[in-house]
Design a protein that fits this description.
10-stranded mixed sheet, 21 helices, single chain, 602 residues, alpha/beta
Length: 602
């Protein structure tokens, strides 16, 4: 699912538990105060009981004899660090492509280390992973100063590595040239998901081409050795290579599955392990009972996004139009836009249109940010103006908007070199997870999911269709699919964000329930993951990493949306100037569809 943003905010109070029976906030309170007082019905956020204290009675598990023997046959790599990026250290490690053949072909794994600020008090190495699958651990380590706390930077060498197939490590490439890649998957990559009947044939054809090119029909391509279990084995050898007795790890989004797999393959080798923005491990891997449901629907990311958006509309209405762009009638304006888009694309003028699929991607992208609820409501307000103009026969042409949309739609096929992001996401996802054999199973499954999670089920559901068993043939016989109930030598800290649009809070609850020696830290936060956006979470995680102290509290609160008066204005069509306070994303207008920085599933 995506990596974390770099976020700063002020410390706020504990998240409230269920406040049923408490009187509603006073109508005379300020809009910001009324928003802060809207209760979070936390009981509704959990599908299973949460674990907030480790189960001390469960003895730690051991690495299996078979796994120990597998890695004993591999010599621990000797890391030769060199200075890079001013004060960082860089190196590469040669590791087996297939651990069943320890003396066979190898992959090159790129690593970056940020040395501890206080080497005399150094605890060891903190390995970090940003998610994806396909995110660069090297890039995350290079950003350590921007998101990690001072106490962590003082006491740890921060180590990031690009997993096999990804980034600066040996890359997976399913085509010889970028031009061939673009041509083959244009139906799959140029739109967020197939919405119209005309889109579906080209989308499925490109998805099949992607699966065939990456998984092959003969030999053993790299994609057949990219499961998370192989990366966990790499991580274990890298832990040995840096000289740590046990692993200290901080993983976000898909990186939480890597953390869960490592914890269950090597439970006796865990010093401190934090997973934030948690994929339910059994949902990602799948079981015999769930294999007929596509993986990207099993993990219910769409449910998390829809839940977050419904909460945003609720808080927007409480705050009112002084604090929210659609505060007068949030649900009504959103429904008007949704109804219009379901009937067909909204004309923007200049021959350009805006579709239901683009709206879904744009809204989801906004919700990835801690302040994304405000961004999303600005967009709904702007689109509502276009809908009203179109219904009244007025023109709302904005030439800069049309030019921005043209640039965006051309962007997917531009690359400075070979862009393998689609291949990395697909190769890991399909290697890890069980899925239906027939690609025709996706459409009815998505239709069923849409009943509970309108708007977001298709963008998540369709992203895994290349994994259809009849298409994908690069099976990794060493992929890890459970069990996930091994007790670790030290507790696992599980962080769940109530309003995460990519990794549903229920995933954190499920992970903390199945992993016996774990602690669930919940946060009433916004955006994807909580570390860095909730100062309370950041403080608790840092203390755990440094001192091995579990949180003194089970819940936190991060900054809430609609707490500041609006300082921009949305144009009302007819050529009016539009000023939308969105982050600068390549200079594109706010209404231009934006996909998550890492493909869904990250």
């Amino acid at each position: 699912m995506t990596g974390i943003g770099l976020r700063l905010a002020a410390v706020l109070t504990l998240a409230s538990a269920s406040l049923a029976g408490i009187a509603p906030p006073s109508a005379t309170a300020s809009p910001a105060a009324r928003v802060a007082a809207v209760p979070v019905q936390s009981a509704r956020l959990q599908s299973v009981p949460a674990r907030t204290t480790p189960a001390q009675s469960t003895p730690p598990g051991d690495t299996t004899t078979a796994e120990s023997a597998l890695l004993a046959a591999v010599k621990t790599p000797k890391l030769r660090w060199r200075t890079c990026y001013d004060y960082y250290r860089c190196t590469t490690a040669k590791l087996p492509l297939d651990y069943d053949r320890p003396n066979g072909a190898t992959v090159s794994i790129a690593l970056v280390k940020r040395p501890a600020d206080q080497p005399g008090r150094r605890i060891g190495s903190l390995f970090v992973n940003p998610g994806g699958p396909g995110g660069s651990g090297v890039d995350l380590a290079l950003a350590a100063d921007d998101f990690l706390g001072a106490s962590v930077l003082d006491r740890f060498d921060v180590v990031g590595f690009d997993p096999r197939g990804i980034g600066e490590s040996t890359e997976v490439r399913c085509w010889r040239t970028n031009k061939a890649r673009v041509r083959a998957i244009k139906g799959f990559a140029r739109i967020p998901f197939p919405w119209s009947r005309d889109d579906l044939p080209a989308y499925l054809d490109s998805a099949a081409r992607l699966a065939r090119a990456c998984s092959g029909s003969t030999g053993k391509p790299l994609s057949a050795s990219m499961s998370t279990a192989e990366v966990a084995r790499d991580l274990e050898l890298l832990r040995r290579a840096v000289g740590d007795d046990q692993l200290t790890y901080l993983g976000f989004s898909y990186g939480t599955f890597l953390g869960a797999v490592y914890a269950n393959m090597f439970p006796d080798r865990v010093r401190a392990l934090v997973i934030d923005g948690v994929l339910t491990p059994e949902g990602w891997a799948g079981t015999a009972a769930t294999a007929d449901t596509p993986v990207t629907l099993r993990i219910d990311s769409a449910g998390g996004a829809w839940k977050a958006w419904q909460r945003a509309l609720e808080l927007c209405g409480v705050a009112g139009p002084e604090y929210c762009a659609i505060g007068a009638d949030p649900r009504g304006e959103f429904q008007d836009v949704l109804d219009a888009l379901r009937q067909g694309p909204i004309p923007l003028g200049g021959g350009w249109e805006y579709s239901y699929a683009e709206f879904s991607a744009d809204l989801l992208s906004a919700l990835y940010y801690p302040d994304g609820a405000e961004f999303a409501t600005w967009e709904v307000s702007l689109l509502h103006d276009y809908v009203e103009d179109a219904s009244a026969g007025r023109s709302a042409v904005d030439p800069s908007l049309a030019r921005g949309l043209a640039r965006y739609r051309a962007r997917w096929k531009q690359s400075f070199g070979y862009d393998n992001s689609t291949e990395t996401f697909t190769s890991v996802l399909c290697s890890d997870s069980l899925n239906p054999s027939n690609p025709n199973a996706w459409k009815p499954a998505i239709t069923r999911a849409e009943r509970a999670t309108p708007l977001f089920a298709p963008i998540w559901g369709w992203s895994s269709v290349p994994c259809a068993g009849s298409w994908w043939h690069a099976d990794d016989e060493d992929a890890y699919r459970g069990t996930f109930d091994h007790a670790t030598a030290n507790p696992v800290l599980v962080v769940g964000n109530y309003w995460d649009p990519a990794t549903n809070y229920s995933g954190a609850v499920a992970a903390s329930t199945v992993m016996p020696n774990s602690f669930l830290l919940s946060s009433d936060s916004w955006g994807h993951t909580a570390y860095g956006s909730s100062p309370c979470v950041t403080e608790q995680v840092d203390r755990y990493l440094v001192h091995l102290e579990l949180p003194a509290r089970a819940s936190c609160t991060g900054p809430q949306p609609f707490s500041s008066p609006l300082d921009g204005a949305v144009g009302v069509g007819g050529g009016a100037t539009t000023e939308v306070p969105l982050p600068d994303r390549d200079g594109l207008p706010a209404i231009v569809p934006l996909v998550p920085e890492v493909a869904p599933g990250s």
